[in-house]
Amino acid sequence: MSTRVTGRYKASTGRYNAFEAVNGLFDKSADRLNMPEWLREVLKTPFREVTVAVPVRMDSGKIHVYTGYRIQHNGARGPWKGGIRYHPEVDKDEVRALASLMTWKTALLDIPFGGAKGGVACDPMNMSMTELERLTRKFVARIAIVLGPQRDIPAPDMGTDGQVMAWLMDEYSSRRGYSPGVVTGKPITLGGSQGRVTATAYGVVIAADAYYKSRNETISGKTCAIQGFGNVGSYAAHFWHERGGKVIAVTDVKGGVYNEKGLDIPALFTWFNEKRTVAGFPSADVMNNQDLLTLPVDCLIPAAIGDVITPDNCGNIKAPLIIEAANHPTMPEADEELYERGIVVIPDILANAGGVTVSYFEWSQNLTQFYWDEERVNIELERKMRKAYLDVQTMARQEKCSKRTAAFMLALKRVGEAEQQRGN
Ligand code: NAD
Fold first, then answer.
1. Last residue of a domain, one of 332, 351, 370
2. Which residue CA neighbors atom 40 of ligand 1 most closely?
3. In a domain, 161, yes or no
4. Are residues 93 and 169 both part of a single domain?
5. Per the structure, how many domains does the chain have?
6. pLDDT (tens digit, 9 = 90+) per residue, 148-184?
7. Closest ligand 1 atom number to CA of residue 308
8. Residues 40, 73: contact at Cβ < 8 Å?
9. Kind and range of the H or E run holding 80
10. Domain range spanning residue 102?
11. Residue 37: inside a domain, yes or no?
């Protein structure tokens, strides 16, 4: 019961080893479940890891060789499922960590998928559309052998979007025939689902709503600060604002803005669509990524990169509630300190599961070729998120543990049972 979770510092990059950190969280919950050693070993070890060279002809005419990964963590409950990230900091340990989180996330939401993740270490913000298309097609050509609608189904993540998914589908389909179910997060015209673009953020705000509901409160009038204004952060701001909450600070990789009375979110969208950053938005003060985390808000929503809440800054966090829209934004040591301080953390595998939930709906629609309207998608999404939230809350109360430990316990139990039933 007393496993202390740490992630070992990696001297070469100055970062924690995120995969070790996730496995530390795994062990903490496995201890409570009295899970046998052999099963822990099976569940922690990725099923398959593919590393590929991705040579791309840049617009300058020169060839640049990128490194790409697809890691399939566990497929006991269904086809592997997980996003593809384009970001300079993508490395194998990070992708392993994210693949493993997908296994626990799909199990927690009770979606019939396993967990996977992929990525290419590149800087999409400094690449042209034609370079991104060539990169995507070459990457898909090299990993297509392990993909498929019944095998492994990618989706968007940081640095990728519906256009990248469209190229992925096209490249895969040119080899295997029309296969919309090989990827989710596609544009609607190519078989994407209504509500997928906003699904992760909608789920984040439903998780917040469920938390407040359990306390007979609502989002209305509550302040929040959001790190990241990409797909997840921007729509989280939109839904928070729509429910009468005040978004008082937002940052992205280029800078940030703060207004204690609440930012004008529709105007911020207009600004962002033109400038591609929130920085410089008028009628607001300047805010940076570090200071945003320690603002005195009702709710803090990290929605950018991982490992931003650290042992160094967690003592200064003033928000009583943190909703992890990003994957692993909180380092394990910081997580334990937050719990001891009574700060409630709604963990990533629950908070940001709206995206994979609607990806599941999209995949189902592709297989049946019967398409739902947005209202149905959002109703089903809300039902799934609220059920998972209540499951986690009940387990946390029973076990007198954090919501993260409870969420992992529920997920580990489900994947463990599936693994044992399938046998060896
Ligand atoms: P995105 O690429 O659309 O946006 C990322 C945002 O983070 C941008 O605003 C960018 O400026 C900012 N950012 C990047 N590097 C940063 C840095 N070093 N410091 C501060 N900000 C930085 O990505 P997204 O899809 O919104 O994903 C955001 C997070 O949510 C990621 O952790 C991702 O894994 C997680 N997530 C996304 C989805 C999804 O459906 N898109 C689903 C589940 C989890």
1. 351
2. 355
3. yes
4. yes
5. 2
6. 999 999 999 999 999 999 999 999 999 999 999 999 9
7. 19
8. no
9. strand 80-87
10. 46-178
11. no
Burial of 309 (0-12, 13-18, 19+ CB in 10 A): buried
Pocket lining: 160 vs ligand 1, CB cutoff 6 Å:
no
Question: Ligand 1 pocket: which of 85, 108, 305 to mutate (most atoms <8 Å of CB)?
Answer: 305
| Pair (208, 241) in one structural domain | yes
Q: Do the beta carbons of residue 398 and residue 404 sit within 8 Å?
A: no
Question: What's 286's domain CATH number?
Answer: 3.40.50.720
* Residue 214, number of CB atoms within 10 A of its CB: 11
Residue 288 in tokens: 């940076």
Tokens of 403: 């919501």
* 210 and 174 part of one domain: no
CATH number of the domain enclosing 143: 3.40.50.10860
Which parts of the chain register pLDDT below 50? 1-12
Could you say which of 323, 351, 379 is where a domain stops? 351
Tell me if 370 is assigned to some domain.
no
What tokens appear for 299 in the block? 């709710």
Q: What is the pLDDT of residues 277-315, one digit of tens each?
A: 999 999 899 999 999 999 999 999 999 999 999 999 999
Any ligand 1 atom below 6 A from CB of 200: yes
Closest by Cα among 116, 190, 112 to 371: 190
CA-CA distance, 358 to 384, in Å (whole number)?
Answer: 10
Q: Which residues are catalytic?
A: 117
Judge if the beta carbon of residue 158 lies within 6 A of ligand 1.
yes
Distances (CA, A) of 43 to 30, 46, 110, 129, 232: 10, 8, 17, 39, 29
pTM of the predicted model as reported, rounded to 2 decimal places = 0.94
Q: Quick check: is 285 in a domain?
A: yes
